[in-house]
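The protein record filed here:
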Amino acid sequence: MIRWLLLLLGGVLLGGIVHLATIIVLPRTATQDAFSRLTPVAAVNLVVTLPEPTPETAVMPMMDPAFATSICRYDLSNGPMKLTAPVSPAYTSVSFYTDRNIAYYAINDRSAGRHAIELDLMTAEQHAEMPEDENITAADLLIVESPTRTGLIAIRALAPEPGQMAMAQQAVDAAQCKRTEIPKASD
């Protein structure tokens, strides 16, 4: 009886090790992740609107056809970026992902509370270089720190009815991500 319990315990332990190793290693070895799939489609630091998804032509798996989607593949090596995304009448969201497809920040039109979602994207080092300005408050300037120098920004606008897809498409088409300079401290 003890032999069977030890055998069962050893099997469970070995199965747990194999399971954890698979969970940790497989995402790092995947060659068709979101960043790899969008690299040929999206230029660096430029917003590119994705075509409406169909089962045969969807760029990414399980894309919702009720959303118009734009992608900005960013590279912060040459400095921070400014993202501006006008909101659609129904719902607009902006999500940030590292080059390893880890989501690290998201905001929607209700959280932004404005007619456009505006924010600055930079690394922690670039944020540390920014001068302190007492006249600028956190409400005036939304800064998102990227954990990596490269990644993806997904801008999505909802079209609750098929006839409203044109308005949602206009909202994501008007989004911009541009490289900006870090302001220098005044002496």
User: Anything to note?
Assistant: The helical segments are 2-29, 34-38, 109-112, 124-129, 165-173. The chain has a mean pLDDT of 86. The radius of gyration is 21 Å. The chain is about 30% helix and 30% strand.
